[in-house]
Amino acid sequence: MSTSPRTLQEIDAACWAELERAATEPGHAWRLMALATVDGDAADLRHVVLRESRPAERSLIFYTDARSPKVAQLAAHPLGTLLLWSRALRWQLRLRCRFYIAVDGAEVAARWQQLKATPAALDYLSPLAPGQALQAPLPEPTHEGHFALVTARVERLDWLELHDDGLHRRALIDAEGARWVAP
């Protein structure tokens, strides 16, 4: 984006345009999102890869191993935050989301069908769950996939634009509307 958005509506549109680009451009800064979840009484944080952006639904999609701790954490507490940073734009985007996990159904089957012909399928074919102790460096893959589709419905978009002169701008967009807030 060559010029900075000026209005709250332009900010919202620009964020979703960047999210759409990030879902299809492997080198985009927002392709890797930091996902914060609740693990008991502690926070947990890791990166996930943005696979799809659906601006009309205000949702994002990423994939994971169905046995991953994040799946259990989101099942127990389906609210979390995605954090994105673009050095080129100098934008930080915090997305408070409600997460939905799918392990079967037409949407999952269609994506798995596309993915299983690629090297990325190995991420979901390990006989061991993520984080499980290993006896050898790499276990042999199985034929059974453990693929899950996670949909993040954005409930709150928190945009921060940083400037060298210190005149930063911040906006919140949620069910209460769009508004400027102090950076």
UniProtKB/TrEMBL annotation:
Start and end residues of each Pyridoxamine 5'-phosphate oxidase Alr4036 family FMN-binding domain: 16-101
Superkingdom classification of source: Bacteria
InterPro entries: Pyridox_Oxase_Alr4036_FMN-bd, Split_barrel_FMN-bd
Pfam entry (one): Pyridox_oxase_2
SUPFAM superfamilies: FMN-binding split barrel
Protein name: Pyridoxamine 5'-phosphate oxidase family protein
Gene3D superfamilies: Electron Transport, Fmn-binding Protein, Chain A (2.30.110.10)
